[in-house]
Amino acid sequence: MKTVFFDVFFDVDTQLDFLYPAGALYVPGAESIVPHVAALNQYAAEHGIPVISTVDAHTENDPEFRAWPPHCVAGTAGQHKPAATLLESRTTIRSAPEDFHVSNAQQILLEKQSVDCFTNANLPALLERLGAERCVVYGVVTEICVKNAALGLLKTGRNVTLVTDAVRSLDEAKSAQFFQDFTAAGGELATVSDFHLPAKSNTL
């Protein structure tokens, strides 16, 4: 991968309910990407790049549970992220419009109640505040929430790189189709080993 400076890393839905066999909505093999996600998040912290970590935060009777088994209910153990994927300085932004502050945050936990992170009303303003023109995306599930994040960012005119060995899918055929659609729309593919980039200092 050519030398590129990135503005934001997107860590999509890496929560216990998705990542491990005991989780309520386990993605087979997802535990294998946890070291990669942790390494990418740490890389971002070391290079002054903010990490937006999207997280499901459902109510007990969330409408989404008509389509999916209950998962990531706010406050439950399964809704949490693995400790290795958390950065020391972090803040949470709820889904409803709010006055948020991210000036000292290495990691922003962006709550959502949908498979599309853009349903969080604060995301457009957050992206503008961070100057997020060049984004790196990874996490789960490849052909659902990762897809919505990556294609949604592309639709806003941003440059997006997807880390192919830091994602995991439920449906390989749909995942392959997403990769095709993503690259056709101008997205770029990378692997964790590509991230040997010069340091960059961001001011939030």
3D architecture notes:
The chain is an alpha/beta fold and 204 residues long. It has a single domain (8-194), classed as Isochorismatase-like (Rossmann fold, 3-Layer(aba) Sandwich). It is built from five helices and seven strands, in the order E-H-H-E-E-E-H-E-H-E-H-E. It has helices at 16-19, 34-46, 123-130, 142-155, 172-184; strands spanning 8-12, 51-56, 90-93, 107-112, 134-140, 159-168, 188-190. A seven-stranded parallel beta sheet has the order 3-4-2-1-5-6-7, sandwiched between helices. Strand 6, helix 5 and strand 7 form a beta-alpha-beta unit. Helix 4 packs parallel to helix 5. The longest helix has 14 residues, at 142-155. It is globular. It starts with 7 loop residues before the first strand and ends in a 14-residue tail after the last strand.
Runs with pLDDT <50, length 5+?
A: 197-204
Supply the CATH architecture.
3-Layer(aba) Sandwich
Largest sheet: 7 strands, parallel
Give the amount of beta strand, in percent.
15-25%
Element-by-element helix/strand order: EHHEEEHEHEHE
- Oligomeric assembly: single chain
Report mean pLDDT, rounded to a whole number.
94
CATH class value: Alpha Beta
Question: What's the total number of strands?
Answer: 7
- The neighbouring-strand order within the major sheet is 3-4-2-1-5-6-7
- The CATH superfamily label reads Isochorismatase-like
What's the number of structural domains? 1
CATH level-3 fold name: Rossmann fold
SS element count, helices: 5
